[in-house]
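so im writing up the methods section and need the BTAD domain-containing putative transcriptional regulator record in one place, dumping it here so i stop losing it
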Amino acid sequence: MVKFGLLGSLVVHDGTELRPVTGLKVRVLLAALLLQANRTVSRDALKEALWGASVPASADAALANHLTRLRRVLAAADGGTDERLRTVAPGYQLTVREGELDADVFEAGVQAVRQAYRRADWEAVRREADLAMPLWRGTPLADLAPYSETETPALRIHQLAEARLQALEWSFDAELCLGRHQEAVAPLTALAGEHPLREGFHRSLMLALHRSGRQAEAFSVFQRLRRSLVEELGTEPGAAVQEAYAEVLAGEPAPRPGPHAASTRPPFQLPCEADAFTGREAEAATVRALLGGRPEAGGNGPGPGAVRAVVVSGMGGVGKTALAVHVAHRVREAFPDGALYADLRGYCVGGARTAHELLARFLSDLGVHQDALPEDTDDRALLFRSALAERRVLLVLDNARNAAHVAPLLPAGGPSAALITSRQLLADLPGSAKVPLSPLPESDQHALLARLAGAERVRSEPEALAAIMAACGGLPLALHIVGGRLASRPSWPLALLAKRLTPHQGRLDTLAMGDFDVRRTFAMSYVAMRDSDQPLEREAARAFRLLGREWSAHAVTPQSAAALLDVTEARAAAVLDVLADAHLVLNPEPDRYQLHDLLGEYAAQRDEEDTEEERTTALLRLLSWYAAALAAATRAATRETQSPPPLDPEALKNLSLPEFADDDEAIRWTAKELPAVRDALTRAGELGRSDIAWRLAVGLFGHASTHWWTGEWDACLEQAMDIARAHDDRLGQAWLHRRTAVAHGMAFRNEACLDHLRIALDLFTERGDLAARASILGNMSALYLQSEDPEQALVHAERSRDLYREAGNARGEALLLSRIADVHKMLGEPDLAAADYRRVIELIRGTGHGVFLATALTNYGDVLRVLGDRDEAFEVLAEALSIRLRMDDQGGTADCLVFTARAHHHFGEWEAARETWESCLELARRHNLAKRIDECLEGLKALASRAAEEGTRAG
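--- predicted struct ---
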């Protein structure tokens, strides 16, 4: 049976799972039809719903398209049948059967409450209200602004909201008539706060407080209501409130109900659900399914597959309690023997509530007399499990500290279930299902702020809204505070609040309002860990501080964290897992851990708990690790045997560095770490550590072999050079000139490349570094080739080869063999070049050096073109292209496409040549590869000229 939901965000359920309805226009279209279910809605009315007063000329075609998409959704939800949506002049009619639309079921329930209220059947009032209220998921059509704010839906939403509030008033009247005064106080307090001008809630709250012996509080409620009515509406409280006030003035509280009266109804202790609950549809559906929220056919107990306990976990402020209460209200029907609720205060300053005291309360709530309670906690737990054995009770255990805290309170099988919230993952809690919560996605953040502050208001300042959402980091607690501030300050522009939420400039001070305080919420988690009696947790608290102070913007791995913390990799992994289990760090992918933005700011403010020397030493260890890790990545990416001398050979022995299977893996790792490397370079300069700074920049050589075109390497080399010069670091300058020359050469900036090569050669000659001289002369050879000067290229290649032989470097010789092959190619000696390239390919194939192999294959393919060997030329070029694409090497891909296009042109394959030139041109323009852009345009021009000549001859 299909279920349609309007009471909250718009949903369609096929009886097994939610069916997605994608596209705002399609969702609005469905809402407009559901609001007029089983009635014909004209085409004009539907177009107005979709476009308002600005109906476009293409509206008829667009409406037909949206209707087609809607029909697909409805057919998929209805077992493939296409009978729901019918064309009925002058429009369309959506068929909705009895019980399928939650708004209809809800209103029928409210009508049943009304009838029971009129005949003073208080048990029936409560029973019918209990059935109707869980259908309310929040403000109807909460996700469809601005459509939901237009006249027709707005009126319907108002009617439904008013019906809900009236039913709630009647249900609390029934509670009072049944003598449940004390139980009504907490939910009525919440409702009166949410609706400060609603007299019915205040009247019931006054009576509940008065009849519970709390006269002073009852007087305060009356005075607060009267003040609000006079100030806001200029009226006095009505007759019903005045009568209640007279009862309070009489000072004779009604006698409390006896034990039997209190236990005639199953306990229902769930807190009131917040009206502004938004999003979390997938998580809510998961929890409901795990708890068995859909009863078995013919029964009202949990459905098949229900678990004993569901743990909703997440960082402080992420909305765990809100989700748990939201779901608990909606599965109440599956637990007719009651709902027990307790805040376990696992992260409260005053200390956690014990299982011993909570078991006493729960047993009393279930009718066990206090005199019968055992003194031993384990015995109480046995009695509690026995009391639950034949009951279907839902336990909502909020804010658990750890698994041991909550374990004695869980049912042992049977039909009861527990819904637990915790900042810990509670991975060691047996028999439980885990539902971790992440920050809200942007769409839900927007919807929540729209509900709290007004849809039109948040829509009017999109840039400020984006800044506010970014500052709140998707944290519902922060968003509620922001929404509350905006609601209470209607004259404030969003830009003003966005400015106050600038990170590290008082943002956490702004994110506090009354009892809602992001900093205090985070502190509960952190302080519990810092003051733990477990050494690993105390160590994790220190890691949290160091990460926040020194590295909050970047992810760490067990290897990098080991350097920061000065521990082994295994110990660092254990520390990070403790933080992840407590949701103090995010763990978005295996072995990568990162602080949430707001948590990072909080952690950074804990710097007074470590000395400046301790923090600096830890940071230098981490920066040194990055320098060593980049050196390893460059060795893997380039297979180069020459690299700068390490910072401290002894210190390297204690570092756990990443290992790379091939150049592709090394380059991808560096790309992922690049933002952290840039930050590390800046931090090294600030600390006066030129030796670290230039090694970081030089260490990007491997990544630049495929990503030089981005300009990132140039910027890092320039920044490191400024640092090296400021500290007169001659070794650093030598290496930076050497690598800066390579960066210029890759970008075809030939004169600048030669200038830096000459400076580097002088500096390394000054140091007597034979291997460096050989490498630099080899680079000069490559540069002269690029400048089309084969004679100088050969001279420098031979000088470089001789130095490599003198140094005993066989790999260097192979590299120079490739240079010599390039010279033969340029001198018009393709047979000699082909032989040299084949030898180079034999030497490097299988070594894992993809960049070198792809370059050799590309050049070899071009020589085969000259030799007229078409099939092998394209086979070789295709292999080179596949390597470049696999490595995401945009510059190398463009190189390969240029040679492939030339080969197609050479062999008279004009259409293939044109397609290849155009593909390369698009790539070159996307990445600003100036030389390749010119080559592509010349190639296309040549094709056009050839076509024009053929046309002339044909004429």
